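Researcher: Next entry in the queue.
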Amino acid sequence: MYKQTLATLSVLAVLAGCSTTHQNPVDFVTYRDQPLVKQVAKGMNEQDVLTAGGEPSSRQHRKVHPGSCNNYVLNHEGSQQSYYVSFDGNGKVDDSGFMTCDQHEANDRSSM
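Model: Structure for this entry, 112 residues:
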């Protein structure tokens, strides 16, 4: 049991270190097969994101940087998780992750 726990923690640490955004590695492992998580990449346009993930639960204009942000709710075995996809002023994906657009904006403001 101890070896399995240590191996799991090691994998999660590696995943966290490879991540370009601050995300909970458990969320990534749980939702990695969701189309938004699996297919959306920086530089995609909004239509490609809509094709991959469908209509968002909400859309909003970004306040810190030009562009917009789509909120999604991912579902897996009865659990729900917020997921955002952020677009720059040219309508291209510039970030995504396991939080809401508002939480992402708050992080952007605090890092300035």
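Model: Helices lie at 2-18, 25-31, 35-39, 46-53, 101-110.
Researcher: Noted, moving on.
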